[in-house]
Automatic annotation (TrEMBL):
Transmembrane residue ranges: none
Superkingdom of origin organism: Bacteria
PANTHER family registered for this protein in UniProt: FERREDOXIN-RELATED (PTHR21496), RIESKE DOMAIN-CONTAINING PROTEIN (PTHR21496:SF0)
CDD domains, per database record: Rieske_RO_ferredoxin
Cofactor: [2Fe-2S] cluster
Protein name (database record): Non-heme iron oxygenase ferredoxin subunit
Keyword terms: 2Fe-2S, Iron, Iron-sulfur, Metal-binding
Protein's organism: Candidatus Seongchinamella marina
Stated family: Belongs to the bacterial ring-hydroxylating dioxygenase ferredoxin component family.
Gene3D superfamilies named among the record's database cross-references: Rieske [2Fe-2S] iron-sulphur domain
Stretches assigned to the Rieske domain: 13-108
Amino acid sequence: MNFYRSKRVNEFLQVASLSDLPQGQTLCVEIDGREVLLCHTAEGVYAVDNLCSHADARLCDGKLKGQKILCPLHGAAFDVRDGSALTRPAITPIASHSVTVDDDAILVALTD
């Protein structure tokens, strides 16, 4: 797994290049010690915390299907657009973060 060093740009952090994240793929980045999963869907790039809220499995080891990221441990699905838990056994959402793309740069603003 590749981790990218973040670079601050105003309130957003530059975390990766769009060329590093083909559509339909995910990329795990570390921002201020926090693992964040970038997900490139047909609708755009989204960022969510990398841990499943059910069993702390790393979502980067799961599969991206459309707007859903599937947990590799028990198959719980989360909507990458807002972090909502879509299927059991997960019932608690995961944090989602604001993303903007500027030319080739992917920038993320973390939520608390």
